[in-house]
Specification:
By secondary structure, this protein is an alpha+beta fold. The protein folds into 2 domains: 105 residues, no CATH class; 150 residues, no CATH class. It contains 11 helices and 9 strands. The longest helix has 15 residues.
């Protein structure tokens, strides 16, 4: 086999991986989705590489080799045992996981929480500094807070969301406003992690107060009258002190796709 033939084989292999297909049961790993929401695409694809390794023992590489030989118009009997060709094939073969990823993404429906806040949007995966949380998160009046702080919290809820919060001690003083739902993972793979969420009367049923420090919170009754787009932190609901671990909601609570988008700036 000539060097020119071997180069043709290399070129074909570069463009044609062995296509791996998913079925209706395959889903993307939860940790990988958490990395995507943090904007860490590299770690997500590392998790896919781990899955890819599991496929290797079951791949029919001989049929892929025969596809290459057929595409080149060569005779299988003349080429199959050629050592130079086999070396080129072994070095150039790879798994094409693109279809598997797309299908698994469509199958994956995770419980996602969005925590809206005001001010300049963070990059996906960034968290507010602790000293900024009181000012930028949506917190609720509580008896442990000063009258001045409770009034500030009420005013912010009213000004931004059009929500009148009359009572105190309905939530802990550090409970945050959260919105529950799911996300289109395939869309995130194509466009990147969301940075903003649109909330208002249409999302009232998916809104509650919660914190992941001790799993406390209020059971909803947050009724905004304004519709507004705000920056938000998106996270996979965590298993220990997350919303579902505490409340054990039925699946319908999480069924709605969050009205999330990827923006650069927002007026709030």
């Amino acid at each position: 086999m000539t060097e020119q033939d071997l180069q043709k084989a290399r070129d074909w292999l570069e463009e044609h991986g062995y296509m791996v297909y998913a079925d209706y049961r395959d889903e993307l790993p939860t940790d990988g989705i958490a990395d995507l929401l943090k904007g860490n695409d590299e770690k997500f694809y590392d998790s896919i590489a781990d899955i890819e390794t599991n496929f290797y023992p079951y791949i029919d590489w001989e049929s892929h080799r025969d596809d290459l030989i057929s595409a080149m118009g060569w005779d299988i009997e003349d080429v199959a045992d050629d050592e130079d060709f086999q070396e080129v094939f072994d070095e150039g073969k790879w798994l094409d996981m693109s279809d598997w990823i797309k299908t698994a993404a469509r199958n994956t429906r995770l419980h996602i929480t969005a925590t809206p806040y005001t001010g300049e949007p963070l990059k996906p995966g960034e968290r507010l500094f602790e000293e900024d949380q009181d000012e930028r998160l949506f917190l609720f009046p509580h008896g442990y807070c000063s009258d001045e702080e409770n009034e500030r919290r009420r005013q912010k809820l009213a000004d931004v969301l059009g929500y009148t919060c009359d009572g105190e001690e309905n939530m802990y003083e550090f409970d945050e406003l959260k919105v529950l739902g799911t996300l289109n993972i395939a869309d995130i793979l194509e466009h990147g992690a969301p940075t903003h969420i649109t909330i208002g009367p249409d999302t009232a049923n998916e809104m509650l107060a919660h914190n992941s420090v001790n799993g406390s919170g209020g059971m909803g009754s947050i009724k905004p009258t304004k519709t507004v787009t705000l920056p938000a932190m998106f996270e996979v609901d965590e298993p220990r002190y997350g919303v579902d671990a505490v409340y054990g909601f039925v699946g319908e609570v999480w069924a709605r796709e969050l009205p999330a988008t990827r923006l650069e700036k927002v007026d709030a």
